[in-house]
Design goal:
The complex is a heterodimer of chains A (about 350) and B (about 300).
Chain A: E1 9-12, H1 28-40, E2 45-47, H2 68-75, E3 83-88, H3 95-103, E4 108-114, H4 122-130, E5 134-140, H5 147-160, E6 164-168, H6 176-189, E7 195-199, H7 207-217, E8 221-224, H8 238-248, H9 256-270, H10 279-287, H11 293-304, H12 308-317, H13 326-339
Parallel strand pairs in A: 1-2, 1-8, 2-3, 3-4, 4-5, 5-6, 6-7, 7-8
Helix pairs in contact in A: 1-2, 1-9, 5-6, 6-7, 8-9, 10-12, 11-12, 11-13, 12-13
Chain B: E1 5-10, H1 14-23, E2 29-35, H2 41-48, E3 52-54, H3 58-61, E4 70-75, H4 79-90, E5 95-98, H5 110-119, E6 125-127, H6 131-144, E7 149-159, H7 165-169, H8 171-184, E8 188-198, E9 206-214, H9 220-235, E10 240-243, E11 248-250, E12 253-261, H10 272-293
Parallel strand pairs in B: 1-2, 1-4, 2-3, 4-5, 5-6, 7-8
Antiparallel strand pairs in B: 7-9, 9-12, 10-12, 11-12
Classes of the chains: A alpha/beta (about 350), B alpha/beta (about 300).
Chain lengths: ~350, ~300
Amino acid sequence: MDLQGKKVTLHDMCLRDGMHPKRHQISIDQMIDVATALDDAGVPLIEITHGDGLGGASVNYGFPAASDEEYLDAVIPKLKRAKVSALLLPGIGTVDHLKMAADVGVTTIRVATHCTEADVSEQHIGLARKMGLDTVGFLMMAHMISPEHLLEQALLMESYGANCIYCTDSAGYMMPHDVTARIELLRARLKPETELGFHGHHNLALGVANSMAAVAAGANRIDGSAAGLGAGAGNTPLEIFAAVMDRMGAETGVNIFKLMAVAEEKIVPMMDHIVRVDRDSLTLGYAGVYSSFLLFAKRAGQKYGVPSQDILLEMAHRKAIGGQEDMIEDVAMELAKKRA
Amino acid sequence: MAKKLRAAIIGPGNIGTDLLMKAMRSDWIEPVWMVGIEESEGIRRARDFGMKVSTSGVDGLVPFIEEDNIQIAFDATSAYVHAENSRKVNEKGVLMIDLTPAAIGPYCVPPVNLDALLKEGRKDNVNMVTCGGQATIPMVAAVSRVQPVEYGEIVATVASKSVGPGTRKNIDEFTRTTAGAIEKIGGAKKGKAIIIVNPAEPPLIMRDTVHCLTKDKPDQAKITESIHAMVKDVQKYVPGYTLTNEPVFDGNRVTIFLQVEGLGDFLPKYSGNLDIMTAAALRTAELYAEAIAAGKIA
């Protein structure tokens, strides 16, 4: 694999995807502390919102310690170079949230849909592009469909105005050859000026390997998270990926030692539990389950006396997709009834 | 035998056809016209069912409203054209039941506020909110009629195949309209709506989760009883409306899990989200027809 001289934009997730293992309780002070340290390490793009994106504050996904607007408004003015992105899932967030985010200084909007439902993003992608924002189409659970089907959906998002398309491995299910097949096809068929990104989860401990495959196949934006703080077994650990890129001669522009310090000194001490490949998060990656179901399954398992692993496997069996956290308690009750 | 109200259905697509099939069984509504904007499969189907058809929109219907004694119209087109459709038939004294998200008339969720609407007398236009609203607002109301609800949140999960291009192009309209009706009709102080579109094959039957945060500690017995009573009320027009589990109480949170299976008239059974719209619209029309027959509404 030759990545010599490739330019890679690192996009940090610990203040958005990292909200999942923190149950959306990262404080405004912690957000500022971590974001300014990432900025100082040269990370060019940092995502900040509720874990489920703008408007995610809910009974269903959890109420955060502060609103999206409060977080963004507090952090953005403190950054010297880094830009801030916000995630938006149509069906959860609306264009009103998008406009709010742009008003407080967000410059990248990532509109996320399930990989087969790109056409619910037309209104949000169209508006973001019209507002002159860096507009990303984010196709989640991309392991569930073929590369050809993913391309079809990516072309829709591109036609709505997305200038960057993500192949998103929300379940941490993909292997490097899966990533290669998808990114290569997208690279061959989308406009040459459309950027490509990869968002990994580390449930099979393949976050770094998959991201390397993505860069080799033509992706230039890679999501990762300092110390891997993210849903499931976390995201691709950003400091590890940056170190690997450095070794391979790819250009990320980050100071890897400063990034290691952020992970070690700021993120790890913040963790409520050590984010790692445990039995349940491995099950996510093995069975292809949305990573943020992890803590919901653990809680429901405890409440109803059902192994959380069984709940996750049942969610896979029912082909649940991102956002269906509400089904977990229902499934746990049904499994408990069957065991009684 | 009471006199049936003669009706026109605007929009010969899947929803309009399903509504037509249900209306043909009604004791109170007699479908007479199907209105489209061109020759289409839906128009041909309507013709086969013996309907008069217009292929030039509502303008093709208007000249016949009086001679055919059309008193009620259903609009199953889109929010963009609804206001014009409504204005044109209202001028001829026709009551419009709006299945689009246009919401120019008052919201109507039959088991919750239709009685109150009927008491207000004649309306030009009533709006059926959204599919998610029809499925979940009865449950929010079942809790709020027992004790104050500070916050009501619903999650509607629907099969990808049951979500048409109109909804997809403006999914924000679903979340906004549903959230608004959770407050106005459901009785929650603040409302939030979430929709998930799931592509699983075979398609999943519509599922809904309703979370209510009550102001004071929830009265479990009363709320549970109220929920079961409300489920029975909805089952009068959607027999496949069921709880998947008993309500969950956790602190001030009340959570209700539902499944909505359709009748499978024209639309497949999994698309309970569409069935509950057509069934609720017909139910609304039937109760107006009963009220008119009883002389309660002129």
